[in-house]
Specification:
This protein is mostly helical. The protein contains 18 helices and no strands. The protein is globular and about 60 Å long.
């Protein structure tokens, strides 16, 4: 289990590094470089628009790779998704800017971001099932949480590289070529990930399936559509919180509050680091008290904290901003730490890779794709504290709270006996 968990964590860390490096670049440099004819606000919105395309592609990736995972096994998904995401990320670092090739530049950026999202949509399902379907029932939440640590590690890697570059290069150097370096680093990480995953074995749960679904998506849509919609709604708050902290706040604070790029990256990275460390502990609470209760507490805490978080961000004081981000991410991880065990337990093994991944990634469209754009548009209309952003985030958290309330508990049920909804 330790070897499997380590391979899953490393893989998700690498793939989320690829995904996050784009988000940070979108907040800092992609607007002026690829949309120079737009106003600063419109350029940022356009850059976040290409960022959102990755989330739109993720459910499509979960359908494509979920079909492979349910028909051919979980292991092929892990290899193919890593190759696709890594290749697309390296290519982003090679795209000429608008000044060199005109409108073809943002179009190429859009296409490569779509491929990034397609690969990541397959990664999550394969990685969590690798650990969840090997893990003993009483510790499934703990072991399955290791892929959920991967996003924090990937984020820290991505922003650590950007932070190092932003502190050692001049603004002109960073804008000219420095922002491309983290994308090229993705190629090295992808090779390392493939080496870690090449010897993984197929999960016993998949090998025990005697009759595989012919078209898993059709079966999921016909028999589990309500479950998919509820899980998508439940995921939305976590995505909205994370990308508000990691992406929108970086853009807002540097452009509107005059906070330096280095200070903001440091505050965000410190909060994400604590979130990553606490992930397995939150997952253990899910093993002890149940998946659903822990998720309900996290969603309720998040709904109560959005207004204070935005107020603390607007102070532009590093310690206060860090405190706001940290408590928001702790509420987030209370929901997301148990999901790698919770979502697979909701589906039978023959459609599990498709069902769990589609619900998870549809939540990304609701919470991750829209939030930076909505927050940027709302904050751009006011010179004071952007309370409209807080109201939007609170509404998303209440939506997720309601969806979690309608989902069944699965902790007492073994992974081979799915709950129904």
């Amino acid at each position: 289990m330790a070897r499997l968990a380590a391979a899953s964590l490393a893989g998700t860390a690498i793939e989320f590094y690829d995904f996050f490096i784009y988000g940070t670049a979108a907040a800092l440099v992609l607007g002026p470089l690829f949309f120079p004819t737009f106003s600063p606000l419109a350029g940022t919105l356009a850059a976040f628009g290409t960022f959102g395309v990755g989330f739109i592609a993720r459910p499509l990736g979960s359908v494509l790779f979920g079909h492979i995972g349910d028909r051919r096994g979980r292991r092929p998904v892990l290899i193919a998704s890593l190759l696709l995401t890594g290749g697309a990320t390296v290519a982003v670092g090679c795209v000429p800017t608008y000044g060199s090739i005109g409108v073809a530049a943002p179009l190429l950026l859009l296409a490569l971001r779509f491929l990034q999202g397609l690969g990541l949509g397959g990664e999550w399902g394969g990685a969590v099932l690798l650990t969840a379907e090997h893990a003993p029932a009483g510790r499934r939440g703990l072991w399955a949480s290791f892929p959920q640590i991967g996003p924090a590690v990937g984020f820290l890697l991505a922003n650590g590289v950007l932070l190092a570059l932003s502190t050692t290069l001049t603004d002109a150097q960073f804008t000219s070529w420095g922002w491309r370096v983290p994308f090229w680093v993705a190629g090295v990480l992808a090779v390392a990930g493939l080496w870690l995953r090449h010897s993984l074995t197929e999960t016993p749960q998949f090998l025990d399936v005697t009759e595989h679904a012919r078209v898993p998506l059709v079966e999921v849509a016909r028999e589990h559509w309500r479950l998919v919609l509820l899980t998508a709604g439940a995921m939305a708050a976590g995505y909205a919180i994370f990308y508000t902290v990691s992406t929108w706040s970086l853009s807002y604070a540097t452009e509107h509050l005059g906070v330096s790029r280095t200070v903001m990256l440091t505050c965000i990275m410190a909060a994400v680091a604590v979130k990553g460390i606490t992930t397995p502990f939150a997952a253990m609470l899910g093993d002890r008290f149940g998946r659903r209760p822990v998720c309900l507490v996290g969603a309720a805490a998040a709904a109560l904290w959005m207004f204070p978080m935005i107020a603390l961000l607007h102070t532009a004081q590093p310690l206060l901003m860090f405190s706001g981000f940290l408590l928001a991410l702790l509420a987030f991880i209370a929901m997301f730490a148990v999901l790698a065990a919770y979502l697979p337990e909701l589906y039978e093994p023959r459609v599990r890779c498709t069902g769990a991944a589609v619900g998870y990634n549809l939540g990304g469209v609701l919470g991750g794709a829209l939030t930076p754009m909505v927050a940027t548009a709302v904050a751009g209309r006011t010179s004071g504290v952007p309370w409209g952003v807080a109201a939007y985030l609170t509404a998303v958290c209440l939506l997720s709270l309601g969806c979690f309330a309608l989902l069944p508990e699965t902790r007492p049920v073994t992974v081979t006996e799915p709950a129904t909804a």
